[in-house]
Amino acid sequence: MATLSLRGVRKSYGALDVLKGIDVEVRDGEFIALVGPSGCGKSTLLAMIAGLESVTRGEIWIGPRMVNAVPPKDRDIAMVFQSYALYPTMTVRENITFGMESRGVPRARRDEAVARVAALLQIEPLLRRRPGQLSGGQRQRVAMGRALVRDPALFLFDEPLSNLDAKLRVDMRAEIRKLHHRIGRTTVYVTHDQVEAMTLASRIAVMHRGELQQYDEPQAVYRRPANLFVAGFMGSPAMNFIPAELVREAGRTAVAFPMAEGRALLPLHGEAAGAAGGRRVILGVRPEHVFRHGADARSHKPGVARLRAPVDVVEPTGSETHVVLRFGEVEVTGRFDPDAAPAMGEAVDLGLDMANACLFDPDTERLI
Fold first, then answer.
1. Is the separation of the CB atoms in 36 and 207 below 8 Å?
2. 3-state class of 326 per DSSP?
3. pLDDT tens-digit profile of 288-346?
4. Closest to 50 in 3D by CA, of 72, 69, 66, 67
5. With 284 labelled, which of 265, 346, 351, 366 sits at a CA distance of 20 to 30 A?
6. Considering Cα of 221, then 222, then 227, then 233, what sign does the dihedral take?
7. Backbone angles phi, psi at 232, to 5 degrees
8. In the beta sheet, which residues pair with residue 253?
């Protein structure tokens, strides 16, 4: 096993800066996810760790070695690609052992390694089949098996589940998580899917426009996002953003913003209640913290503010109902229990959990 250290890593193509100084430390045996929208630089960064792209500036360390100039084959890594990259004319067994055979590994050791990973991934019945005879999930298991037989210090996954349907993605996420628990290898996992990042990783590196926005544990990224981009990217439906101002009322600070029937005044909770007034802010509230007051057990929880708003859209999803509400000129989404969901056009009494709300500076977009 090994640690991974990225120190001021930059990548440029002429005048175009793709990565703008990435600093990340990955502990031995840790599973981290690089997450962000398309074009943010996450796959380029993974390719640089693998040695498939050169480093313009900065250092990449795998364990005690700086590997900037080390060829991919000598970095003690294994990579699983989005496209599986299996040889269509070879059997599953031949695909798994091809790299070992090329390196001159004796047949007995190859057979032992295949038996080990086939049992681990539960693909023993597939060893004589060819890729064209496999489902997408089975192909991805074979691709992982080919990486596992190398017993590398570092695993790299480049959006391995993006070609699978929704159910298979859920199933394979669970398989990857169990696999990491069993083998304990340091893993870097690239995805644009924030649900994958939240469920798989011990820490998440959120990237945007070639810059690292936040690097922390999943719940810290979700509950205390560093800025508006992270807050809006992590979570589905996304966090609601409401332009507001801080005002002092009765010795404590509240968030004020216009509504159709007058000004809403929502007292802040905890340490934020002592903040100074007279400042513009953006109030961030997750949809799960907007609920029907009186019909939810959280209605009388400390820090819950109450207001009334009209319903624009109702979207049943099965286990929950998404409700789009009108806060003045701003649309706000709430996640309701289906039994407590309002009807379109109804004005509904709402509870907002201000204990879990976030405040952002509208100029810097940073968390206050």
1. yes
2. strand
3. 999 999 888 888 888 999 999 999 999 999 999 999 999 999 999 999 999 889 999 99
4. 72
5. 346
6. positive
7. -80, -25
8. 248
